Amino acid sequence: MRLPAPTMTMRPADLLPGFGEALGAQRGHLFPWVPVMLGLGIWVYFLLPAEPGRAGVLAALALAVAAAGLVRPLGAVWGIVALAVALASGGFALAAARTAMVAAPVLEARYYGAVEGRLVAIDRSARDVPRLTLDRVVLEGIAPAATPARVRVSVYGEQPWMPAVPGAVVILSGHLAAPNGPAEPGEFDFRRLAWFERLGAVGYTRTPVLRREAAAEGRALTVARLRTRLADGVMARISGDAGGLAAAVMTGDRSGLSQEANEEMRAANLYHLVSISGTHMAMLVAFVFGFIRYGVALVPPLALRLSSKKAAAVVALPVAAAYLILAGRDIATERAFVMVAVMLVAVLIDRQAITLRSVAMAAVIVLVLRPEALISPGFQMSFAASVALVVAFAGLGGTDRPRPPRWIATLALVVLSSLVAGLATAPFAAAHFNRVAHYGLIANLLATPAMALLVMPGAVAMGLLAPLGLERPAVWMVEWGCRFILYVAEEVSELAGAESAVPHPPAAVLPLLTAGGLWLCLWQGRGRWAGAAGPVLALALWAVADRPLVLIAPEGGLAGVLGPEGRALSKARGDGYVAETWADNDGEVLAQDVAAGRPGWQGEGRVLRAEAGGLTLLWAGGERALAGVEGCGGADLLVTDAVAGPRPCLVFDAERLAATGAVAIDAGGAIRTAADLAGRRPWTDPALRGGGQ
Predict the structure, then answer these.
(1) SS3 for 131?
(2) Structural domain tally of the chain?
(3) Is the residue at 55 inside a domain?
(4) Do residues 593 and 573 make contact, with C-beta atoms less than 8 angstroms apart?
(5) Per-residue pLDDT reduced to its tens digit, 414-461
(6) Domain range spanning residue 75?
(7) pLDDT tens across 486-499, in order?
(8) Separation between Cα atoms, residue 93 and residue 74, nearest integer Å
(9) Ordered DSSP codes for 288-312
(10) Are 151 and 200 in contact (CB under 8 A)?
(11) Tens digit of each residue's pLDDT (9 = 90 or more) over 31-84
(12) Do 97 and 138 have their domain in common?
């Protein structure tokens, strides 16, 4: 007897029934995963050791189109998988396209001579000196096709005239070089950031900066000039760092805030009040929204005919857009505007304003406009805080507990918001900046109300009343709000143990933290708790991470060996940025001269010897010092910032380091170079660059 053939066909979802059920349970909650998958593709692009090339990008596009075409045929479950593949492949192609779009020449050799260009921005460097960004650059002896689109010059010394108006054409004599590589392998690569800013050279001048009158062109410079005039007007009315903070909050111009104040704000975990971000945009919009809504409610004929909520959203949206234009379209400000705009549009179409969907929509828009934002600390910290806050308050919203009095509820809301946002951003801040602010919650609880109740309302009032000459009360509000915030930052930063340093994490830590956190926040059902494995594993890896035994600076002018008392440096001055970065990554806060005084190096002058992990290391600083060294001086490894030529040992001299960049040697003798980890990308390899080169 023959059995009848089965009539039921096998569906793809039947192969993994448990997977299908779990994925099916996510229906209605899948949109927040759209930016996650888009970001996954972008992250893979930046993770590659070499540029994928045209063929790789076309393959990613083809995969995205093919996967998108399979979404419907594959059904509800596997169609979601196909859509995820399409989004990730699209993100990969989007990042590659953005890299090609911003291509511009990068200065290939050191340059000293005349520099001419149009001033487009003024800020302050880490050394607290003015810094000019120029476009339409002309360099003596450099062909236009090889001239950087933009250069940035730090200005030292007394200046008889300092150009303060964007659009002016300036001339100076300066030292320029290509953007620097990492201070150690795997560290932040400034070259990549500069590439996306089309910044092809950086340098300095100690000579006078001269101005040549020229007509400013372009709407962007009109806004920049307005920003400069407003910032100058604010600082003329409010003296000192309070004026600098007020100008930063109102216009995005941070050049008036001293380096000391900047450091205090960072140590107190208040720097988010300096850099225009979601905090400022939300406070501004909340004030305008509330003012208009209550204003409409006070006029009965209007209140009966208009939705006060929608009227407030209609007014608040252009105000937020104007704030974006005035503050400048950097990633942080753009991200904040998109998030606020999505929420206001949700109000206009009668949707819930603050949801994971609105946060996801903001993330998608930012990633489409600037895929490189994904790997920036600001993007990661801002969206980590936003997602955590939405999830936390959504969880509270479902409870049936009796409501406390309004003042207690308001205080609890402020405390909980600061706590949740602080916990969500702390791992990212520690990983990127190697710092943990222990009293950040206290500082934010004290300073944030001053920003919300005095500074932002006062700033709006100043804008409205200044043309009438009636701005003095508003100036008083802004000034004393800013002075109180700076006072809180100073007092908190001076508390014992206010800030501590943590070692640089292994490369896997941030991806594990991010993946686990997203799973915890976005996945629905009991399976979400599997996401806790990500942060646990990340913290475990971070806790046992080893630091390199030997570090060599990108140009050979500094070397450091790790000993029982910490890293000892080969010199007390020079290469200060590299020395500071090494200390931060080691989890220490100390001056370079202190590190240079540690035991570890023997010798005098510019020729020093050290023992590290069974290796004998010889450092020779400068050509004269190197000339006095025969062979390798009995060492296994010779490090110098001069050209050493052939030697009977492993040599890292100026010539070799120009190709390798910074060098790290671990306890097992394995050598890693910055070039190996950075790979062959347009920002690292001249052969892959466009822009006329």
Answers:
(1) strand
(2) 5
(3) yes
(4) yes
(5) 777 778 888 888 888 888 888 888 888 888 888 888 888 888 888 888
(6) 12-101
(7) 999 999 988 888 88
(8) 24
(9) HHHHHHHHHHTSHHHHHHS-HHHHH
(10) yes
(11) 889 999 999 999 999 999 999 988 989 999 999 999 888 888 877 777 888 999
(12) no
